[in-house]
Amino acid sequence: MGDSGESSNERRSLPRLLIVGAGARGNAYARAVTRSGLGIIASVAEPISSKRTNLGGRYIWHAGKRQEDQEFDYWQDYVEYEKIRRRREEAGERVLPGFDGVFVCTLDETHAAIITALAPLGLHIMSEKPLATTLGDCISIYRSLQGIGEQASPLDGAMFGRFQSHKDRILLTVASGNWRKESKTAPSLLTKSCHDIDFLLWLLCSPAPSSKEAPHLPSLVTSVGSLAYFKRSRKPALAGDATNCLSCPAERECMYSAKKIYHERHLARGNTGWPVNIVDPEIEECLAGPGDKNQAGSAANAKLMQRLAEDYSAETRQSEIEKRPWFGRCVYESDNDVCDDQIVTIEWDEDPLPLDGVAECSLRNRGAKTAAFHMVAFTEKQCERRGRIYGTKGEIEYDSKLIKTHDFTTGQTEFHHPDQPGGGHGGGDDGLAQQYIRAIDAVKNRGMSVEQAQRLYVGCSLDEVIRSHAMVFAAEEARREKKVVVWKDWWAANVEGQFLKVSTLKV
User: Fold this and answer.
1) pLDDT of 5 above 70
2) Cβ neighbours for 16, distance < 8 A, ≥ 6 positions apart
């Protein structure tokens, strides 16, 4: 699948990429890269043998042959291998070619250690969001490298006055899944919606990609939210003492039944991808191979039900409960503590810039404006974004499939259908992977600077990524302490005040 038949020299000129983490996200990017034909998935680092073998067999190894650089048990093994490879190359030995870029697709809390270890190797790095789970780790990453980020949008920020974005997320990730507990991961605003805050700041704070103007910084941040619904006090009386969906008397009436969500709405309809493959990646393999499809379907169903039936009791050690997801656990009986409903409001004051050579100032895109963002689990549009932009000249409404614009002057309304190439996140996985590889190719084969390629193909800077993550932490402080955060003061105290080595980072 990964070998398209090009000659060795042609293959060597394409960016060569390492996947760190062979879970759902690692496979999504491997699939996107392979489909694009723009790069080569050259290696995988993954401690779980079955996951490593699955990804390698699909995208890396050809005719079953494996080279020494095509798989690593741990990312640390790759770092040590690469240091030795470079020493041998410097000594004049003939060695295998190195990699140009790395996809970091591991658990959120591992990103900082991996990225800071990779940074001295000078590779191009694309990390899954969030960049890190603490502000300190974000700053550590900033210290270690300059210039890899992620962002994209088809919208021009010139006409916006007031921006309101509504984000909907699937509920089981914050009730019984991987991101249910803040002490083990991070607040849900960070794990599930940091890229939405990133999007808002990119639209309303960052200058145009070709501009050298300073960003229009926010003035105030507020947030309210809580664990409003997925808790024991909301449990239906019919459920009684049940703690697992498969043994619950209320399962057929419950809209949050794991059996309904994973089996009836997905596996029973032939979907073995997300979210089924999150429960157990091997379910996908049951139906992928040759043989009797009925038997394969029965095997897949049995494997899913086995995983959903897993549960814990009062005798189970807390460390055992916290170290893994329990997908069949009752959403009202889980150990979750993150928000399932949260609103963030960001305000900007007027901040005009002097016109070149004259005392007069211009507002341009720096007028007063407000952004309101809503992360909520209770919605028809699970895992989709909806938003409305109220501008001074018009209005824009969008969801994951359609953008509607209305011009106040002409009264005309237009409908735009963005290209959706397939793949996860409405085509976002494929689009982001392609732009990342194009940026690497521009540096590797066309002599473009990293900064220029980053801006041209990826569309944002590391400064902007750090700023948007910091905004999430500021919003969380506002929510927890029930206060209004003054952005400039918060940044001075929490970033510049504590991390003087990065005081050059623009607010």
Assistant:
1) no
2) 39, 40, 42, 97, 98, 99, 100, 101
